[in-house]
């Protein structure tokens, strides 16, 4: 009796181990279909001309791609936003000396040159 129970438990465990990775992949792909939002973290400063140009660009981007979510943080007048920017920099292992600073996933841009 114990031998049959062990065999049954082993079989169930083996089936679970074999199907679990597929269940995770399926769940992840389903969540991607439901929520395809792209978060853009935009750190800027009041009066920064480069920041203003990037703001205009990001607004156009948002209009063209509704799945884009722009989270903007003014850092010169808000210490909490500055701390958040520095936390992003630490996570990305970079030294951010100024704004604009933009983060998309693990990618980042420091400064602003043009819409290209």
Automatic annotation (TrEMBL):
InterPro entries: Thioredoxin-like_sf. It comes from the Bacteria. SUPFAM superfamilies: Thioredoxin-like (SSF52833). This is Thioredoxin domain-containing protein. The lineage of its organism: Bacteria, Candidatus Dojkabacteria.
């Amino acid at each position: 009796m114990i031998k049959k129970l062990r065999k049954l438990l082993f079989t169930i465990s083996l089936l679970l181990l074999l199907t679990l990775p597929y269940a995770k992949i399926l769940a992840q792909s389903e969540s991607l279909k439901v929520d395809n939002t792209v978060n853009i973290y935009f750190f800027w400063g009041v009066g920064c001309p480069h920041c203003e140009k990037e703001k205009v660009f990001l607004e156009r981007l948002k209009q063209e791609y509704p799945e884009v979510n722009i989270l903007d943080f003014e850092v010169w007048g808000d210490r909490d936003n500055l701390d958040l920017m520095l936390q992003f920099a630490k996570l990305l292992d970079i030294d951010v000396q100024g704004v604009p600073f933009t983060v998309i996933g693990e990618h980042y841009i420091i400064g602003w040159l043009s819409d290209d």
